[in-house]
């Protein structure tokens, strides 16, 4: 089994794809740079990431205008969705990340029927549209990249009239599983084989038990066989009312590896080390992730060498994190005892409910 957390090192030993690409790099359509860094190849062809079934199940239909709020640079999520929408005959509005007010106005002005993004940003965009006094025509949303809570799904339906469905995809593999309208688990996509394995023994977990999602990609020149995603899940029991016979994941329950997903982007401790610890004066650090409202918030706590200007070092760290990890974080200096020796580099303090 190849752990996703190990991919940066594997690729570094045999650049750029770790010897796992079964085709010339020149035959690819795109190459993405995901956090790690991990280089993700996209082969040529329609719906190369296999996401179209997830969007169709979510309610996207030919002729629909769909706003995609995933990034369209470096990482593949935006292009994943665009390729699937093209196959379905939909019209893509490539909104990307941020620019909430601009996207809210576009959502209303264009009469978009669907929206795609992380659960937190989709809800924030619907809130902003309403706050601006604009009327949106959105009926369906497909979300990914974050945990979707029952409260978020209910709020989208009751306050905004939007039916929300989930897709589970990774930047390496593409679509792994997706919800049907029954929303009783995520159906494993036909393009992959999925196992749930004990993270320690690597044996299959018993029925009802949680295990690491291990994926083998069946239709790509990228040889990812038994890729350990680091995500924990369990199998959903029984048959789905929709009639699909594919096995279903009961949902993503947590993480196994050291990497933590913040606002839809993975942050690897080793990568964070290469950013924060290269700023002069930083002795130790810890990234703390919280969710006091609908969006993730992250701050970098720093232990500094004596005699430095804390404000200047904090500003340098915040700028480095935004430039290289592509995330906005506040930075703050703390006493030496504030971060004990051996403390985890990333502390996920989010509460999901």
Automatic annotation (TrEMBL):
Ligase found in the keyword field: yes
Top-level taxon of origin: Bacteria
Organism lineage string: Bacteria, Bacillati, Candidatus Sysuimicrobiota, Candidatus Sysuimicrobiia, Candidatus Sysuimicrobiales
Alphabetical list of Gene3D superfamilies matching this protein: 3.30.300.30, N-terminal domain of ligase-like
Protein name as annotated: Phenylacetate--CoA ligase
InterPro entries attached to this UniProt entry: AMP-bd_C_sf, ANL_N_sf
GO molecular function terms noted in the UniProt entry: ligase activity
Keywords: Ligase
